[in-house]
Specification:
Strand order of the largest sheet: 21-22-1-23
Largest sheet: 4 strands, mixed
Number of strands: 23
CATH superfamily of the largest domain: Enolpyruvate transferase domain
Shape: globular
Distance between the termini: 6 Å
Helix content: 25-40%
Radius of gyration: 21 Å
Number of domains: 2
Structural class: alpha+beta
CATH class of the largest domain: Alpha Beta
Bound molecules: uridine-diphosphate-N-acetylglucosamine
CATH topology of the largest domain: UDP-n-acetylglucosamine1-carboxyvinyl-transferase, Chain
Number of helices: 14
Length: 419
């Protein structure tokens, strides 16, 4: 099993280029099912999750050509056919369930099992199913298989989401684009990745209004064609490097970002007393000042992202005083607390809050990446900790950070991968 060995590396300096967003690319790849013809996706982060999504598409006859050097994928759907979505692949990534909406729209039926992914909570799919049902589909769940069937076709309707779920918003949008008439989704998620998906679908010929707002209107069309689309920058990768720069007291230039998408993160860092300069698509971070403790509450976008919570926890563990993190999105997203504890952090969990009492220093230790962003938090901790840290289960980290070892080495981090 591969591990990262990290030696304390303070004052990290240099430039980091940000990849296309994994969480925008995954639904866009799934949405390509809806196109008739060849679609070209640019700025693709070739991560393991993206490769699994490509294999899921190939399994239903879609032709995928990857050009890793140019970060591009060509997708040709002319030989697509419908069959039960491959369980061995479905269980690997949560986003595999995003195939349900476009397959339902294109073929009128889907057979798929419950998805896998990071173990950060129960992660039900009831809101996705509620949306499909409202559009006229029948759902039968037996022996772990979900059969979704729209015998008489999907028909536009009004759908209210009890919670602005990112995946449910995406799946319902994709299911509605070919439905008869008009669909209105209220209380939907407003994440930039959803705006990117809508932009892609509209380029294919869909009629979707209200991207980035809590109400989205979809006017059904007969079919979708082809387009070329460039994925938005990964705000979570960028945010991780922002925190890493601050925590190591470094000076990193983060290049190719969308500063607008990072407002919740940059304003929290400023509150901590970290100097940040934003210009066009570059953010510079200077982690030199004395830091102040802060509280954080994770919220749907534009609130503070749950995907940045573990990385901030590492930083807050090293700030004098008490900070509190209130996790409102996932019920089991504190598994990194025990690992940070092994490194000397003083954190207590009470319900969905983590109470962090800042310590003078943390120390290198053997720890385990329990999920993707928890793994990122441990890398930051390893760079700050006195001595040497060993992080196991790094396949979680590689699901979301492209070339992380190389990128870190380029800015002076002492990190190596061992098997
Ligand atoms: C997406 C992101 C993930 C991020 C999360 C929240 C992708 C591929 N993943 O995940 O990185 O952490 O948004 O920003 O884009 N829920 C239900 N019923 C449902 C669906 C969701 O109760 O049918 C609940 C979930 O259990 C969770 C909350 O809603 O507590 C948010 O989940 P959701 O927004 O759906 O996250 P994902 O789309 O899975």
């Amino acid at each position: 099993m591969e591990k990262f060995i990290i030696e304390q590396s303070l004052n990290i300096k240099g430039d980091v280029y940000i990849e296309g967003a994994k969480n925008a690319c995954l639904p866009i790849l799934a949405a390509a099912i809806l196109s008739n013809g060849e679609t070209i996706i640019k700025k693709v982060p070739f991560l393991s999750d993206i490769n699994v999504m490509c294999s899921l598409l190939e399994d239903i006859g879609i032709d995928i050509k990857k050009d890793i050097n140019n970060k591009t994928i060509n997708i040709d759907t002319k030989n697509i056919y419908n069959k039960e979505v491959c369980y061995d692949l479905v269980k690997k990534i949560r986003a595999s369930f995003l195939l349900a909406g476009p397959l339902l729209a294109r073929f009128g039926k889907v057979s798929i099992q419950m998805p896998g992914g990071c173990a950060i909570g129960v992660r039900p799919i009831d809101l996705h199913l509620k949306g499909f049902k409202a559009l006229g589909a029948e759902i039968i769940q037996e022996h772990g298989i979900i059969e979704i069937n729209a015998k008489n076709g999907l028909v536009g309707t009004e759908i209210y989401l009890d919670f602005p779920s990112v995946g449910a918003t995406e799946n319902i949008i994709m299911a509605s684009v070919l439905a008869k008439g008009e669909t209105i989704i209220s209380n939907c998620a407003t994440e930039p990745e959803i705006v990117d998906l809508i932009e892609f679908l509209n380029k294919l010929g869909a009629k979707i209004e209200g991207a980035g707002t809590e109400t989205i209107k979809i006017i059904g069309v007969d079919s979708l064609y082809n387009c070329t689309h460039t994925i938005i920058p990964d705000r979570i990768e960028a945010g991780t490097f922002l925190v890493l720069s601050a925590a190591t007291r470094g000076e990193i230039n983060i290049l190719d970002v969308n500063c607008e998408h990072l407002k919740a993160v940059t304003s929290k860092l400023r509150e901590i007393n970290i100097d940040i300069e934003e210009k066009d698509n570059i953010i510079k971070v200077f982690g030199k000042n004395i830091f102040k403790n802060v509280d954080i509450k994770t919220m749907p976008y534009p609130g503070f992202p749950t995907d940045m919570q573990p990385q901030f926890m590492t930083l807050m563990s090293m700030i004098q005083g008490t900070s509190i993190i209130n996790e409102t999105i996932f019920e089991n997203r504190f598994m990194h607390v025990a690992e940070l504890g092994l490194m000397g952090a003083n954190i207590k969990v009470e319900g969905n809050s983590a109470i962090i009492n800042g310590v003078e220093k943390i120390t290198g230790s053997k720890v385990k990446a329990t999920d993707l962003r928890a793994g990122a938090a441990l890398i930051i901790a390893g760079l700050c900790a006195e001595g040497i840290s060993e992080i196991s289960d790094i396949y979680h980290i590689e699901r979301g950070y492209y070339n992380i070892e190389e990128k870190l080495k380029n800015i002076g981090a002492k990190i190596k991968k061992i098997t």
